[in-house]
Write a structure and sequence with these properties.
This protein is an alpha/beta fold. The chain has twelve helices and 23 strands. The protein has two domains: 4-19 and 234-438, Enolpyruvate transferase domain (UDP-n-acetylglucosamine1-carboxyvinyl-transferase, Chain, Alpha-beta prism), CATH 3.65.10; 22-231, UDP-n-acetylglucosamine1-carboxyvinyl-transferase, Chain (Alpha-beta prism). It is 30% helix and 27% strand. α7 (237-249) runs parallel beside α11. It binds shikimate-3-phosphate.
């Protein structure tokens, strides 16, 4: 554990380029591995989660050459993955685990997926159930009706299904679509609430036969995936979110965030912060050279006064990873913020309702959780300030970064017990912060 102390405050100013988007990076890697031809991925983020997917694919026989943030991948084609000689360790990357579970279910070999400490508690039935309907043979650790890793997968010839996902999860959708690539017949996925569409976009870029109509995605297998050659991964908006809030709540701040992903399914944080009164300007980039299969742009953020807002259940998937930092923004706003139906936060790297509520309470925030007919609503009475305190990361990168932002804007000193967990998604976070002092 590596602690961090916040004593001196500063007014953040400057320009930031963020490492590539984590969700897009996983999909770019996996489809490059499954396709015909060589792929060059630029702005690949070198954090624990994306590297977990990279190492997993290497264990499956994929040749990958790394030079800084550029990857060169030699695709092995749809059925070209090799039986792994050892179990595949995915560290604490939930997206790697769930996407690979779908992918490996349809391969012609056995595999075992093992995980790190924080992934052991994350539910897998949401993925295993639809995959078994496709004919997958997956065994997991069972506790009651729920299933947890490690997973043993006995690859099978799968068949397509028509599935209505009761959980709003892009990981579940992604796992089913990846399984559908090698299945017999069409695979259809319908979503109760729309989730980020990176799998669908990436499949189209690689030439898959995929159609999207409202909330229904149809994948017809049989077409060989062909690499588009070069893939540029826009900056991660989930990482940028910490800096959007930092800039907004510290008076006099101004930051330009360059080449950030503007995928419509990820814009929740910008929309909500704007609704709260944030000053965020978007400059869309349309450079052909970047092969914009995923929209991207620059964000110009200036400090401003915030007011409380209502976040509806339908908005949750668009802001799921940004809810911790949104809670911090709500504490610095004036008035009440209610986040409706935030239950999914319970099953992230840690229980993020617990981690954020207990940390913010220790900073004297007025924050409560109300459970109404199974829905967990977080209510924050914004006071416009927080007080320094002893804070805990709970092993969770997003709790840690949110609390650092809170501590930088709070009155007095704070201490956070661990910053190592930040390596999961943003190893350069503290250096990026440091850079804003000097500019
Ligand atoms: C992700 C989807 C989300 C998100 C996670 C990344 C993805 O999880 O929280 O950080 O890349 O598909 P769920 O799909 O479980 O909501």
């Amino acid at each position: 554990m590596k602690p961090w102390v916040v004593k001196d405050k500063f007014i953040p100013r400057g320009r930031i380029n963020f490492p590539g988007d984590k969700s897009i990076a996983h999909r770019a890697l996996i489809l490059s591995a499954l396709s015909k031809g060589k792929s060059i991925i630029n702005n690949f983020p070198l954090h624990d989660d994306s590297l977990a997917t990279l190492y997993a694919l290497e264990t499956l026989g994929v040749k990958i050459q790394r030079s800084g943030q550029q990857l060169l991948i030699w695709g092995r084609g749809g059925l070209g993955l090799k039986r792994p000689k050892k179990s595949i360790f995915v560290n604490n990357s939930g997206t790697t685990l769930r996407l690979l579970c779908g992918l490996l279910s349809g391969q012609n070999f056995k595999s075992k997926l093992t995980v790190g400490k924080y992934l052991k508690q994350r539910p897998m039935a949401r993925v295993n159930i639809p995959l078994r309907l496709m004919g997958a043979k997956i065994s997991a650790k069972k506790i009651g009706r729920q299933e947890y890793p490690p997973l043993n997968i006995c690859g099978q010839k799968l068949h397509g299904i028509s599935y209505f996902s009761p959980v709003a999860s892009a990981q579940v959708k992604g796992a089913i679509l990846l399984a559908g690539l090698s299945a017999r017949g069409k695979t259809e996925v319908r979503e109760l609430l729309l989730t980020r569409d990176h799998t669908e976009r990436m499949l189209k870029v690689f030439g898959a036969n995929l159609s999207v109509k409202k909330n229904k995605i149809t994948l017809t297998p049989g077409r060989e995936l062909i690499s588009p050659g070069k893939i540029y991964i826009p900056g991660d908006i989930s990482s940028a979110a910490f800096f959007m809030v930092l800039t907004t709540i510290i008076p006099g701040s101004r930051i330009i965030m360059q080449k950030v992903s503007l995928n419509p399914g990820r814009l929740g944080i910008i929309k909500l912060l704007k609704r709260m009164g944030a000053d965020i300007k978007i400059e869309i980039i349309r450079a052909q050279s970047l092969k914009n299969f995923e929209p991207l742009g620059n964000l110009i953020v200036k400090s401003s006064k915030l007011k409380g807002v209502n976040v509806s259940k339908g908005e949750i998937p668009f802001v799921i990873d940004e809810l911790p930092i949104l809670m911090v923004a709500a504490c610095f706003a004036k008035g009440r913020t209610t986040i409706h139906g935030a239950n999914e936060l319970r099953v992230k790297e840690t229980d993020r309702i617990n981690s954020m509520v207990s940390n913010l309470k220790s900073m004297q925030a007025q924050i409560q959780v109300h459970k109404i007919s199974g829905q967990e609503n977080i209510v924050i009475q914004g006071q416009g300030w927080l007080c320094g305190a002893k804070l805990k990361s709970c092993g969770d990168h997003r709790t840690a970064m949110s609390m650092i932002v809170a501590a930088l804007a709070a009155r007095g000193e704070s201490e956070l017990d661990d910053v190592n967990c930040i390596n999961k998604s943003f190893p350069g976070f503290l250096d990026t912060l440091g850079g804003l002092r000097k500019q």
